[in-house]
Design goal:
Blueprint (H helix, E strand, L loop, with lengths): L1 E7 L5 H16 L5 E6 L7 H10 L4 E6 L6 H17 L4 E4 L7 H15 L7 E6 L6 H17 L4 E5 L7 H11 L4 E5 L6 H15 L4 E3 L7 H12 L11
GO molecular function, one term: lyase activity
Protein name: Cobalamin biosynthesis protein CbiX
Organism: Jeotgalibacillus soli
């Protein structure tokens, strides 16, 4: 029997954990599969081993792992496989396959473009963008964000676009905000390249609010999971085809 095991990153934020679980519940309700379980890599229960064992107890003979990760970095390449390895050894009769991370996709960039336009009530040539990634020591992350940067600049017609990170890569958020603020002619639009709310989003919000209080014209968009296309991508990862009710709206 086929099973789906969703793996989120996890967070210390109760709000962020609840949001991720609600998102996955919505996905599960849109998929016709006999066994579907939720798990998290760290910080939020149930963890991967518990989710995997639940699939086994429910009669799974084949488990498809769906990582809720925007980009392929250490969590995708090392951490999740390391968690799955002893479980596969314990249950050698169960076939396990893992879907790809989302990667840089045109429809995700289209969704972010919609988020920006909705938040900013339209954009103009004087506006600038600051894309804030989670961060990773994987050098390919910088290549991915270079693609994201170009894709959003082209879609929005904005020439001043910077990228910064919240951890494990530079420039960090404080440096990124300072640099783009010194160059910006108009508003600064901050894009948290994150799936869900949590402590990392809180850090972005606090930094933006601080600058707003100082009189700067700066705003931030919502997290990516608030756009319907993210659900559609997860469903496509599970089923191998675009969902019949796929749509591009909030």
């Amino acid at each position: 029997m086929k099973a789906i095991l969703y793996i989120g990153h996890g967070t210390r934020s109760k709000e962020g954990a609840a949001e991720a679980k609600q998102f996955l519940s919505s996905v599960i309700n849109r998929i016709d599969a006999p066994i579907q379980e939720i798990s998290f890599l760290e910080l939020t229960k149930p963890f991967i081993d518990e989710g995997f064992e639940r699939c086994v107890k429910r009669g799974a003979t084949e488990i498809t792992v769906i990582p809720l990760l925007l980009l392929s970095a250490g969590h995708f390449k090392e951490d999740i496989p390391n968690e799955l390895a002893p479980l596969q050894k314990k249950h050698p009769h169960i076939q396990v396959k893992m879907a790809d991370a989302f990667g840089v996709q045109g429809r995700i960039l289209d969704a972010i473009t919609e988020l920006v336009k909705d938040t900013a009530k339209g954009v103009n040539i004087d506006d600038s963008l600051l894309i804030v990634g989670r961060g990773s020591s994987d050098p390919l992350i910088h290549e991915a964000f270079a693609q994201i940067k170009k894709g959003l600049a082209d879609r929005l017609g904005i020439s001043l676009v910077h990228v910064c990170y919240l951890a494990a890569a530079t420039p960090r958020l404080k440096e990124g905000l300072e640099a783009i603020s010194n160059e910006a002619a108009g508003r600064v639009i901050v894009i948290p390249y994150l799936l869900f709310a949590g402590l990392l989003l809180d850090e972005v919000m606090e930094s933006v609010h601080h600058r707003q209080q100082q009189g700067q014209a700066i705003i931030y968009t919502d997290v990516l999971s608030r756009h319907r296309v993210i659900q559609d991508i997860v469903i496509e990862r599970v089923t191998g085809k675009e969902p019949a009710d796929a749509a591009s709206y909030y």
